[in-house]
Amino acid sequence: MGYVAVKGGTKAIEASIKRLTYERLKESEIIEVKTIMATMRSLVDQVMSESSLYSPFLAALSIKQAEGSMEEAVFIMRAHRSTLPRLYYSQTVESESMFVERRISASFKDIPGGQLLGATTDYTHRLLDFSLLDERVKQNEEWVKAYELELANIKATDKVSYFPKVVEYLRKEGLFDTYEADDTKPVDITKENLPFPAPRSARLQVLTRGQTGAVTALGYASLRGYGQVHPTVGEVRVGALPVYVDQPNGTGQNHEDPYYIGEIKVSEVESFVPVSTKNQKNEAELEFEIGYGVCYGQNETKAIAMSILDQCLEHPESNFPTHDEEFVLLHIDSVESTGFISHLKLPHYVTFQSKLDSVREVKKEGKE
Amino acid sequence: MKRRRRTEILIQDDTTLAKQLAEGLLQNYTYREIVAPHYGLTMVKMRESAKNSLFYIGEVLVTEAKVEINQHVGIGVVQGMEDELALQLAIIDAAYNANLPQTKEWHDLLLQAEAEITMKKAKKQAELFETKVNFETMDN
């Protein structure tokens, strides 16, 4: 058999796309984008985080179009993003300005400002709730009304509180190193190729847009022994960060008076990692370093796993794969990994025939 | 009122203050559209708390509009797909840049809206404080 180069399949592809539409429509059910936004918060958050584009509306639309496939939804969002102009860069967002909705520490029970559980599945029974099968709008509205009535009695102050970071208290005690604000312009991996060794800014950008499952798996691998980082979570916080942009150049106005454009919800984590060091007398000492994780939306598992990998990548001297930045950073992107795996479905007739020919040749020689 | 503060109020306000101010202004002035409301991206730069360095967390979808009133340019930029609001913000911004007399009259309305926003946020925070953990130490 000789090499087989092929073309064609246009009609089959058209029929396949029709079939795909049929699969989505045949049950005569329509899920509205606003329904996805209202009821699938976590899914919307993950799509925004992995596509690196904050827009709950577009994320919900992509989920609808992709029929719930995460990799498709993220792919569609990334493709859409590439059609839009980059109009602004934000001013630096500082997480002390977060309106905190949830904040916990696994390191201290008493943290200034207290531990705020917010909305979480952490303390729920993971049993299927069959009552949801009979859910009624009216019933739900009554529940909400009763809950709001309960909340109405809560007295509020006339001020909003902002919480300092747990780590800042430890820094003040001298237990953690302090760092001067480093305003080095970050590398933007959407504008330039990821360089190796990767600057810290590039590492964090790749990690924060990494696929949730991949980031979690590698963070877990490090915990289980394929890495040297086993942290204690210093603080997990979830909340909304305000975003400001400067006036674009050339409009001749005051650059120190920015525009507020809205807020983004994020999950942010500082993990405390014990590290052995030697003091000036060459005696072994235990110190703490901080692993940092953050991502769009409420996705605490990903943010914690990111903080582990951040700390791993700060120590490339270790031989474990989770400390190897090429291994970690080049394999966690959703579009890159699913795209490359998917390409295996594309015709490889010529290359495979060539391999077959080689095998046949070897076998023939063996018989002779 | 500084732009930072007024844009915070106009965007966080959940009534129709921006619409009200912009429409009121257009009874006496006309505007020239420089850039019609369109969608684009803002790259968000963030400071991380481990090494205190900067990185990009990702992009945010925004709507931007640009108008001109009395030869003063105004920009409206807001997160999401908000064509009308972006245009209204641009008109209001142009009014401030042109120092139009109406902007003085808006001051109290903006302060009132700001107080309302703060009150709602403080109430939401007080509600969230219901989930604050009260640890009890277990003694022998």
TrEMBL record, chain B:
GO biological process: organic phosphonate metabolic process; organic phosphonate transport
Keywords carried by this UniProt record: Lyase
Coiled coil: none
Gene Ontology terms, MF aspect: lyase activity
Record-linked Pfam families: PhnG
Transmembrane segments annotated in the record for this chain: none
Entry keyword annotation includes Lyase: yes
Keyword Lyase: yes
Domain of life: Bacteria
InterPro entries: Phosphonate_metab_PhnG (IPR009609)
Protein name: Phosphonate C-P lyase system protein PhnG
Organism the protein comes from: Virgibacillus salarius
Origin organism lineage: Bacteria, Bacillati, Bacillota, Bacilli, Bacillales
